[in-house]
Amino acid sequence: MAGESVTTSKIAIQGVKILTSRGWIEEGTVLIEDEIFTSINQCEVPHGFKIVNGQGLQMLPGIIDLHGDAFERMICPRPGINIPLSIAMVENDRNLLASGITTFYCSITDSYEPGLRSRQTASHIIEFILGPGKEFLKSNHRIHIRHEEANVLGHDELCEWLHTGRIDILSINDHLPSTPEEKRWYRYLNSIKQRTSLSLEEITQLVMQVREKRHQGEEQIETLIKIAQERNIPLASHDDDTPEKVALSQKRGVAIAEFPANVELAAQCQAHGASVLMGAPNLVRGGSHLGLMSVVTSIKSQVIDCLCSDYHYPSLFYSPFKIAEEGLMSFEQAWSLVSSKPAAAARIGHRKGQITPGLDADFLLISPDLPVLSSIVSVYVLGKEVVHYPLKKS
Fold first, then answer.
1. pLDDT number for residue 4
2. Model's pTM, two decimal places?
3. Tell me: the pLDDT tens digits for 281-324?
4. Which residues lie closer than 8 Å to 176 by C-beta, 6 or more apart?
5. Measured between alpha carbons, how far is 13 from 363 in angstroms, rounded to an integer?
C-alpha cells in the first residue's frame, strides 16, 4: 500500500489517477527507475519492481516554489533571537514537504541589514544547503539570491557565487524608500526592527547612510546581470510598479517578474517574455497585503504564469484547489501554476514539473476523499518516499 518503505530503485505506483500534461489518466501505472519516470500508464508491471498500491489516490507533479522566505522565521523566531541554522533549516524542510513542495528555491535576501538578511547569514545558509544539508534536507533545495541594489559591499564575493554556480536565480530588489516622506518609510523601518535587535533610531541612521550609496551599485548590478546571462541563470525583477521599471527589466533580460503592481504592468512583463510570478498567500488571504494587484485579478486578466509561497508555504498547496473551486481555472490549469510553469520559468522544465518519462520522479499522492487540509498521503522526491501520512481506517 502507499506509504510502505521503498528501498529499491525500481518502483511501480499502480492503479493511481495521474495528472499529466495532457490531462488525467484514470487508474494508470507509473514506473520509476533510478529516480526517473520511465513509463506512464503501463498496464503490466515488469519483474523486479516494488509495487505501491495507489488505488483511490491521485498523483500530482511535485510543487516547485520559486520564491519562499518563510525559513527566516525558523532562523529568527523573535527579533534578534537566532536558532542554530541546522535546526532551523531541517525544521523548514519538514514544513516544505508537508506542503507538497519538492523543489524549493530558498529565497535569501542579500542586504545591507545586520543579522538575518546580511551577507554573512546568506553565506551561512548557502554553505549549509550545499554542504551538510545534502544529508539532512529531503526537498530539492536551490539558491535564489535576492540582492538589494543598495548593498554595495562584498561585490566580488557575489560575483564569485554566480561564476561558480552557487546561485540558481538572481533577483534584483530595491526595498529602500527614496525619501522619508514616502508612505512606506515607517513601514520599512518597522520591518527591519522585526528582524533585528536595533532600535528605531539605529535603524534610521543605517537607512540614511545606505541611501547615500544607493546609486553606487548601478555598475555592480550590470556586472551581476552580465554574469547571470553568461551562466544562463534566470534573472528576476521584484515589485515593478512603473512602466520605466518594466522597461528596465526588459533591457536586463528579466525572465521572471515577481509581483508586478497591476494588470497593465504584468501584461507588459509578459509581452517581453517574462513569466509573471504571484504570491499564493495573496490568493488565500483574499488580496495583496500591500494593496497591489490580487491573484484573482491577475487570473481573470490572464496575466499570471506562476505562483510561489512568498512567506507562507501551505498557501501554495491550497491555491490550485481554491482557484478551481472558485471557477477561475480548471484544476489542471491551476496545478500547472505551481509545477510545470515554474519549472519552465526557472529553466528546469527538462528535469522537473511534470509526470512524464525522462523527468525526475518528484510527485505527491493525495486522497480526493479527504479535506484539502489533510489530503496529502505521500510525498516523493527522486522516486523516494520522504513523507507519509497514514490514511485513517474507517
1. 44
2. 0.93
3. 999 999 887 778 999 999 999 999 999 999 999 999 999 999 99
4. 148, 149, 150, 188, 207, 210, 211, 214
5. 11
| Degrees, nearest 5: CA angle 87-388-94 | 20
Q: pLDDT digit string (tens) for 52-99? A: 999 999 999 999 999 999 999 999 998 888 999 999 999 999 999 999
**Residue pair 32/39 in contact by the 8 Å Cβ criterion:** no
| Distant-in-sequence, close-in-space partners of 193: CB < 8 Å, separation ≥ 6 | 79, 199, 200, 203
63-346 in CATH: which number? 3.20.20.140
C-alpha cell at 3: 506509504
- CB contact at 8 A, 361 and 35: yes
**Cell numbers found for residue 115:** 543579522
- In Å, what is the CA distance from 375 to each residue of 23, 130, 381, 382, 392? 20, 32, 18, 21, 11
Range 10-61+355-388 has CATH code 2.30.40.10: yes
Q: Which residue has the cell 516494488?
A: 50
Domain ranges for the chain, please list them.
10-61+355-388, 63-346
Domains 10-61+355-388 and 63-346 share a fold: no
Answer whether 280's CB lies under 8 Å from 310's CB.
yes
**Strands of the sheet with 63-68, listed across from one edge:** 63-68, 101-110, 140-148, 169-173, 235-238, 256-258, 275-279, 306-308
Cell 514544513 found at: 95
Question: What beta strand segments (E) does the chain contain?
Answer: 10-20, 23-33, 36-40, 50-53, 58-61, 63-68, 101-110, 140-148, 169-173, 235-238, 256-258, 275-279, 306-308, 363-366, 376-381, 384-388
